[in-house]
Request: fold
Amino acid sequence: MRVLAVTNWYPPHHYGGYELSCFDVMTRFAERGHDVAVLCSDQRLPTAAETTEHEAVVERTLRLYHDGEDLVVPGWRGRLSIERHNQERLVAALDRVRPDVVSVWHMAALSSGLLTTLAERGIPLVFAVCDEWPAYLLTLDPWARPFADTALRRAAGRLVRRLTGVPTVLRDVGSAGPALWVTDDLRRRTEPRSRLGFADHAVVYSGIDRSVYPATTETAERPWGGRLVATGRFDPRKGFETVIRALALLPDDVTLALWGRGGEAEQRRLKAIAVELGVGDRVEVGAKERHEMAAAYAAGDLFVFP
Reply:
């Protein structure tokens, strides 16, 4: 089977678990003999650990409306340039790979018109949804957002498409394939606000990679050390501020380790809050590579998922 994955970020240039899940699925498809290709953004993280493994099937050419910190909104000419470029790269990938199915992952800050092109091509789609992006997709798409929500705006969008040849109005592509939600809670929270009406769905959990997190036979209890651990992309939605504020209410010997990627401004904000609350010396903020996470979790006495 020929599979093309479309997503925004992809390891090792990634920020969170969503991208790692995509990597896990694609590498396992390849291990099982499927022909896999990945089309993702051209953003590269200077701190990423470079690797040649699997990279031969990855094309990093799509342009995002995001710089890793904030939404980027160029002028109309700049937006049109991004849309035309992304459409060209998608069409070239489709012609080269000739996929039997396109696996759609994290579309936040990508051109939503890519979904329209996939649907119009009649290619079977599978949506791997580990985030609420079907609800906020247009919020991070400065090209398509002005052509949404009202009949007049959609009519204007159709006119602009005839003039530019670029998709404008987001098509409801939910009927093109099922949505595989990482949890049913995410599905229930997202579907009422989703821009995409998925005709079919299932819940597929991410699971645990035993090669990264091997099972342990250790049964001996260890004394409570007051070490709290929280992980995830540094984003206000992750709730790390809540954990820091809770830490300030706990005994002085309790510490907190926050491990994640991205969000340099958010990291500075969290550190400033910790200092303001008088717990700056009890909070560690930083990044860990995937192979370091098992030890990082094991070093804690309590994992916090705010």
Summary: The mean pLDDT is 92. The two ends are 39 Å apart (CA to CA). The first helix runs from residue 17 to 31. The domain at 2-203 is CATH 3.40.50 (Rossmann fold).
